Amino acid sequence: MSLVYETMYILRPDLGDEQVEQAVTKYQNLLREQGAEDIQVQNRGKRRLAYEIGKHRDGIYIQFNYTGPGTAIAPLERAMRLSEDVIRYLTIKQEVREEKVETEAVPA
């Protein structure tokens, strides 16, 4: 069964654009290998952290939205935990509501 997930992770602020792209591609490919689909990537750019994490005051925020099996999460988070480039990550399961399309008579 496929569910909708959102993974937000923060990369070290001293990474260059090419290194950021490599990290994004690496995690995208890892998700695909685990059966994830419809991967949407949003690079939210460099932002100030709410508090210092490992001597870093800023971080590069990346967000993935994707559908896939729940088994895709563990390998992704393990790779992020082992990476020196990722300073924080969080994956959440999103509530997906079926939208009802209501047709109303529009007064002319």
Describe this protein's structure:
The protein has 108 residues and is of the alpha+beta class. It has a single domain, classed as 2-Layer Sandwich (Alpha-Beta Plaits), CATH 3.30.70. Helices cover 25% and strands 44% of the residues. The protein is built from two helices and four strands, in the order E-H-E-E-H-E. A four-stranded antiparallel β-sheet has the order 2-3-1-4, covered by helices on one side. The radius of gyration is 17 Å and the shape is globular. 18% of the residues are buried. The mean pLDDT is 90.
How would you concisely characterize the structure shown here?
With 108 residues, this protein is an alpha+beta fold. It has helices spanning 17-33, 73-82, and strands spanning 3-11, 37-53, 56-68, 86-93. The N and C termini lie far apart (45 Å).
Our measurement of the CA-to-CA distance between the termini, rounded to an integer number of angstroms, reads: 45 Å
The main β sheet shows up as: 4 strands, antiparallel
Give the DSSP E fraction (strand runs of 2 or more residues): 35-45%
Largest sheet strand order: 2-3-1-4
Name the CATH architecture: 2-Layer Sandwich
Notable features of this structure?
108 residues; alpha+beta
Secondary-structure map with pairings?
Blueprint: E1 3-11, H1 17-33, E2 37-53, E3 56-68, H2 73-82, E4 86-93
